[in-house]
């Protein structure tokens, strides 16, 4: 049997119309909120400062532009496929319908890496953020309960003396319970978190504008030179630093595709999914570029290699203490909503793969009362709690971007293939300038993959080897596509 046999577009569209027990309760505003909830988190609140200090200087704003353009190309392709095939499998299902089962499995396995590991990584960041906030009130949790007990020293796994990262475990399980209760309840909680962090970020942009007009000379001095000259090594300022910075902060954009994972809980997916995907990208790009300019305007970029760059910058600029507290609240809200949406997306990928027979049928069970994939929700949440409780952020963060970039690349290829194999299929949204946009999407994603370090490629190889072992041992034999009528 052919490993590249595809599911027919008609069968995928029929599945989208079938009743699977999900509650369709999400509109375009909720979808944009889910997207913002997944995207605006550690990538701006934590990584913007170190990326400016080490790679781009004030031009880190251009790094966000570069990463955003790559995501825009992928987002335009996602929007076409999401409108054509509005099912919960996201890029996995799109690839199944265009490039075949084995590549669909590769994408699905990469999405597991994206959602699960990014959720765990941000849970570790949440633990660090809550620790900093508790310090403000002279509350100190023992270090042994705040950090990972495992780490890598060279190529060896070593123990650190800690017991467990308890706050990371707590937030993972608490948000899993919210997701278990239902998509509407989860969306309402996420909307609250998004309102807090977006409101504070907009206030930060306003404060930055006020500071600029009151301290124009100091701000311009901090922005000069806007693109610092290269320090003699690749990626240390200059244009190479902008692109290295784009690779470093690409994690900021990871997760916007979770909008398409909620397709079967969307009231009008053909109309609302493209709005949700592209609306998310436009809003978060504006926020990222604006607040990164504010950050480097308040404080010289060389001083921003700190754990909480925005709070540090506000302190140095003499901002009122209340504003600093609001920034702390926004950081916590931002990280919370990213974990929530990461944990929301993963069970829906499991659901789609199980419906195709590539995972056990238990992964497709829907709770009769809450209308959620409760089995995989708890599997995902417990796995996230274990990973975040045992491993540090540096190990987890390395694993996220490369799998996501590979999935984005295959989605762009899928648009090209379906334009040839299904040219007359109805498309409520069409990617503009095909084949240029999909080709540019592939080029920009693959280029960013090559900027990643060798160890990241090695980790991806290990993860994919495990995935192919599962595929050969179980999925290939149980695939419904090959069982016949």
Which descriptors apply to this entry?
mainly alpha, 485 residues, globular, two-stranded antiparallel sheet, 68% helix
Overall residue-averaged pLDDT value: 84
Ranges with pLDDT <50 over ≥5 residues?
none
- Main beta sheet, described? 2 strands, antiparallel
The helix tally amounts to 20
Structural class: mainly alpha
Estimate percent helicity: 55-70%
**Compute the gyration radius: what is it?**
22 Å
Describe this structure in words.
With 485 residues, the protein is mainly α. The chain is 68% helix and 2% strand. It contains 20 helices and 2 strands. The protein has a two-stranded antiparallel sheet with strand order 1-2. Helix 9 packs across helix 10 (216-222). It starts with 8 loop residues before the first helix and ends in a 7-residue tail after the last helix.
Secondary structure layout plus pairing:
Elements (H helix, E strand, L loop, with lengths): L8 H9 L10 H12 L2 H4 L2 H9 L3 H25 L6 H8 L2 H36 L13 E4 L2 E4 L6 H16 L1 H32 L1 H7 L15 H12 L8 H4 L7 H30 L10 H8 L4 H35 L18 H17 L2 H6 L1 H22 L14 H15 L3 H25 L7
Antiparallel strand pairs: 1-2
Write a brief structural summary.
The protein is an all-alpha fold and 485 residues long. Helix content is 68%, strand content 2%.
